[in-house]
Design brief:
3 helices
Amino acid sequence: MINDRAGKFIKIGKGQSEYSCFVPSPLPLQNKNSIKYDNEMIYLISEAKRHIGRLDEVTDFLIAPNYFVYMYAKKEATLSLQIEGTKATFSDLIKASLGILRFTFKHTSKRTV
């Protein structure tokens, strides 16, 4: 069962044009008591803090933390492109930024007179 703690899924449109979208709950919360700190919420907060701690630990060993953030942003950009349907890989993005890979487009339509 999906709870509506963070928001709700709603359906928009009709027929073949129907789709679902997520509408987040408004912020700031109108009622401060509306956040329920049940076992699930406490567990999720604990897991989030643990993952942030692991990330912080990894950055202590990095020679160039800015480069790590740069590469992570490129990786996220690649994932976003793939969601949109673009056929680009992380390697393609890095090669393009280094000038190794150039994208060429071929015009394939045939014209008849």
